[in-house]
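Q: Please design a sequence for this.
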């Protein structure tokens, strides 16, 4: 079997092969939008070929920036378009492509790889761990009243007000009218949100992806601050009597609250569905009826794979001082290392050590912990991570926490 990078002439072959792998027939892009493959980077795509030259597998990667705790931006390979045709599964094609791909990512100097897993059991064995989570929040329109805040936060609108104390405002536009606003607001948001990925300009220009990146018809509620600067948006569509919000992006809580009030106040709908709400979001607590917001569809979203443990651990910001010895096993790549992580005043040093470990864990479990969205103690209790002494898990919890719950909205 041969695994090689694609050329410009291979795009059609790659797309056709991936359709076969997923059992899908080619579909027509939505009106006004580009196909999902429009943003593929040819030099980062792979084809697996039989000795006769028949394509039987595909894999690709996008060049993203990932926001780490501490508002640190680092390059990350966004793995996508991975598939093997049914006739050649269980023959090692996928494993061979993943090894080839990880070697290529390292060769580019990247130390992180991320993906959205079509099936959870697949990517754990390749060293990926679930690092962010998301859910839907459904609110019946007749139970959508906001409670008066007991201690209003600065800039958060008071109950019953359409305008916050900061003088912000909301305007409803059509998707075609506000493409540049969406791009600018999302870019500001993702730079301060752990777990968020960049959306390169060509994604917006090509309409590659799901709404609101795709210019499929949508209404967009745009929030502006007191100076008239856009700082949030909610992209939504009304079908029958359900208003579905594709995504809500806001640079602060005041903007999010104003946007939530706007869509929850929409007439002639029976319920509002917020897609992609992060865990522990305060919206449910803002409603007069705590039970009005029903969470469902909770699932993993962004999976993270570390390719250089010391570089990865020293890149992110930290919020508690301490020392931790991590014994890290990487069975897929046949690698193993023991590292002393020392954190002082928000910065980390990570060096090889022969000290006795505090925690022993798989590289995929370290990926799950990396952004602060999964507590080390949870994985200790689950039997994934071994704590070698009392207190090790709680120390790790304190060290790995992030300043904000990591969350990723981007679909790729």
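A: Design:
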């Amino acid at each position: 079997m041969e695994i090689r990078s694609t050329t410009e002439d291979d795009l059609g072959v790659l797309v056709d092969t991936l359709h076969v792998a997923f059992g899908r027939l080619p579909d027509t892009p939505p009106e006004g939008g580009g196909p999902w493959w429009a943003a593929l980077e040819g030099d980062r795509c792979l084809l697996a070929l039989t000795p006769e030259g028949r394509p039987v597998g595909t894999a690709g990667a996008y060049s993203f920036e990932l926001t780490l705790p501490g508002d640190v931006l680092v390059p990350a390979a966004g793995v996508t378009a991975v598939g093997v045709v049914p006739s050649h599964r269980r023959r090692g094609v996928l494993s061979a492509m993943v090894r080839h791909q990880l070697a290529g990512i390292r060769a580019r100097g990247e130390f992180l790889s991320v993906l959205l897993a079509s099936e959870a059991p697949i990517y754990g064995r390749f060293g990926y761990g679930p690092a962010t989570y998301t859910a839907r929040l459904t609110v019946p329109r007749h139970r959508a009243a906001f409670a008066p805040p007991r201690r209003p936060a600065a800039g958060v609108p008071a109950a019953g007000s359409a305008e916050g104390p900061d003088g912000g405002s909301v305007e409803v536009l059509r998707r075609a009218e506000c493409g540049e606003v969406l791009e600018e607001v999302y870019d500001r948001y993702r730079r301060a949100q752990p777990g968020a990925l960049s959306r390169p300009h060509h994604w917006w220009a090509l309409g590659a992806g799901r709404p609101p990146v795709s210019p499929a018809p949508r209404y967009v509620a745009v929030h502006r601050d007191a100076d008239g600067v856009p700082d949030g948006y909610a992209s939504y569509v009304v079908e029958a009597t359900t208003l579905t919000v594709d995504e809500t992006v806001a640079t602060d809580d005041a903007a999010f609250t104003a946007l939530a009030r706007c869509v929850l106040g929409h007439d002639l709908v029976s319920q509002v569905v917020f897609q992609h709400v992060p865990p522990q979001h305060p919206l449910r607590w803002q409603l007069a009826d705590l039970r009005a917001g029903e969470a469902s569809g909770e699932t993993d979203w962004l999976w993270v794979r570390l390719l250089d443990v010391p570089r990865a651990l020293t890149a992110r910001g930290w919020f508690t001082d301490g020392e931790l010895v991590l014994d890290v096993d990487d069975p897929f790549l046949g690698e193993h290392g023991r590292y002393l992580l020392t954190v002082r005043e928000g910065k980390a040093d990570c060096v090889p050590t022969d000290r006795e470990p505090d925690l022993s864990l798989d590289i995929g479990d370290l990926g799950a912990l990396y952004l602060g969205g999964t507590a080390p103690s949870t994985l200790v209790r689950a039997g994934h991570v071994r704590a070698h002494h009392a207190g090790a898990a709680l120390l790790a919890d304190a060290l790995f926490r992030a300043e904000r719950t990591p969350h990723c909205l981007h679909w790729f």
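Q: Thanks. Anything notable?
A: The chain has three domains: 2-110, 134-297, 309-362+375-400. Residues 126 and 332 are 6 Å apart (CA to CA).
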